[in-house]
Specification:
heterodimer; A: 127 residues; mainly alpha; 0% strand; globular; B: 751 residues; alpha/beta; N-terminal domain of TfIIb; Rossmann fold; Dimethylsulfoxide Reductase, domain 2; 4 domains; six-stranded mixed barrel; 29 strands
Chain lengths: 127, 751
Amino acid sequence: MRALLAVSAALLTLGASPSVRASPQVPRAAAHPDVQGEQDCAACHRTRTPGSYSAWEGSAHGLALVKCVVCHGSTGTDFRAKPKADRCRGCHAALVEARKGTATKDCFACHAPHSLSANPHRSKGTP
Amino acid sequence: MSSMNRREFLKTTAAASALIALGSRAQAAPADPPGLFWTKSVCRYCGTGCGLYVGVKDGRVVSVKGDTDNHNAGFLCLKGFLLPQIMRAPDRLGHPLVRKGGGFVQTSWEEAMALVAARFRTAIDRYGPDAVGFYGSGQGLTEETYAANKLFKAGIRTNNVDGNPRLCMASAVGGYVSTYGKDEPMGCYEDIDHADVILLIGSNTSEAHPILFRRIVKRKQTGKDVKVVVLDPRRTPTSRVADLHISFTPGTDLAILNAMANVLFAEGFVDEAFVAKHVAFGEGADVNKTLADYRAFLAEYTPAKAAAVSGARAEDIVTAARWFGEKGRTAMSMWTMGLNQRTKGVWANNLVHNLHLVTGKIGKPGSTPFSLTGQPNACGGVRDGGALSHTLPYGRVVANEKHRAEMEKLWNVPAGTIAPKPGLATIDMFRALEEGKLKALWIMCTNPAQSLPNADRYRRALRREGAFVVVTEAFHPTRTSELADVVLPAALWAEKEGVYGCGERRYQLLEKSIAPLAEARPDLEILCDLAKRLGHGALLPWRSPAEVWDELRAASRGTAYDFDGMTRERLRQSHGMLWPVPAEGHAGTKRRYVKGDDPLVPADSADRILFYGRPDRKAVVWLRPQKAPEEVVDAEYPFWFTTGRVIEHWHTGTMTRNCKELRQANYESLAELHQDDAIALGVQSGDAVRITSRRGSEVFKVRVVDTARKGVVFVHMHDPNHMCNRITIDAVDPASRQPEFKICAVKVGKA
């Protein structure tokens, strides 16, 4: 449970402050309670990490039901507290590829996690 | 195939091969790792038909990305994004299996196919061709479904060819055909971008068609005063963008739709000129009524009466009608299983069409009645391809002598080859198996032992002594393959080439990306092998899916579906085309029946719209009364039972349950209950309840939600271990033969 709270706190922090970097990958499978697939992540995380949840829920991803697992993976070893850009590629391949070779380190340098509110591409006329 | 066609074919395939080699690798993006290349394809899941690219490295599918040039503008839902994981799932079947003794034994293809052919041959010789049947799928490729249809109807000479689209869109077909004379929507997805009012009824678009829902959200957010109305007993995530959500007692929506029409007349929203020119009126099966008759029929459907019947609020019904009818604004309706999976499914469809016809809100950008489809190729393969027990390719029907003669000529078989009597529709087919009349059944790419209503009954039928069941599947065990006598390993999605036709008449090519797993074979190859062994090899002579496609184009020529101009190379280069496409230079048809857009409407036609599907060139407004579902609640079975999807899982879960992320999200089917019902039953979230109907029983864990309607239990449909279809009812719509999955009566008790 302590581990769960630690994870939750990390996610909450991420949601509140995009500049805070997540710690390197840790084996989450042991830390996360066995949810047995009876629910989706939001069933707990809407109260465990309300900041992240509400930022996501009100976002374009929230409306379109691009749920937690799309970016973060499962609760197994593939879990990423901070998603890699590859997870964005399914829908935003051109933008992910355009970033390569630029000074922008990753998508979340500009896009606030969970709300993903900023859209610098559109303002520059990029689709 | 004529020698000319053969030459064309060779040229085509040579060009196509070059394109595959060049095109795929040319798709490699600068940032891609070495060795990664992309092939163009379509999502394997729902009927939206999202275009995507399959990323291949070292002979494996490693990635997908949305096709920005296709209708989905590069977006995929979470299922589509996770598609690579299904290809090497642990339960992929790589070798033929034959039941011996109590279990399955791995065999060679030769042994398995020899056994299958012998059993089919014996059944046909002893009991006649109608002793065998084919049960197909809206997920098979168009070429595969066509091959099966031709083999069974023209080779074996039985019309016992049906498929799971009977379970999902038969009533939509019935609605379009009875109203317009021709099947399939006349509009397109782009209509969403022009719609001022969007009416969603019997559709949880948000979870069942997420990428279309995204488009609806975008329209809602960027259009001027766009109104979204959702009619659904449950308050699903779709209602998040609704201006008005109308909840009602299951099965009462016919009254609501008639009441909306009542308001349209009462408040002056009817386009009288349009009605006079383009609309006829009918009741029952006859087009023998007048506008005055219709008005008299509607008189009793006041909003107050509909409210009393349905439990909805009268003022909401009025508001919905006013928004829909407002002059100078466009209106688009979309619906799916909530209307189709009903014993009055065709009627419910008719009533939606009525709203468009009396207001003239049809055939204009943003104004169209649009049936959403559940499977990726229900439309293209089974519906258009005529692979149901009463149909023949491209609008033809078995019962029509002229249509049979056309197909016999196209198929180069003697006159009289195709039997004049329609074969068995799905439920009838499985009942024939139960009764011992059907001796051998071929099931391709679908999972009826989980997906049929009243499933336990038909699970017993599949194991009846003397019945011989062949299942071609990419996965094993499924709840169906576990009951088979022979399971043949089918190539899956990116392992083969073929065409899918999605909900908006868009046909698209799925390129082959990788070799099939182990000994798996494409269904087309398996069917050609069966044909040879049954002595019908000449009917299925093809060496590639592209050869089948040329035959399909010929079959469509001169019909309302005409896609003769959709050559294989055009498909390869394009991101899908909407039929009709009668000539190579034709770009496709966004809106049918519309002058200047639909090539089948003469350029000198007097009006902007021509409903050429019917002899009088008019569409029919049908007088369809409210009628209760087959089974209603009572003292013994006091809860309404309904089923549906969650966004994470698709159909019976054979694919999505193989994705690790999705295994942890809504993996187990739950029973959603209203808080008041949960209190009355003394249960809370996480408790187990047993749900029982007159047919069967199953245990589910409870989830108490604030989105349920009191008295209605909703259960997810995707879980093979907690099967909702043990409970559902197998009563069918008398016209469409589609079962009433969506409504039955149950009792609920603590397990």
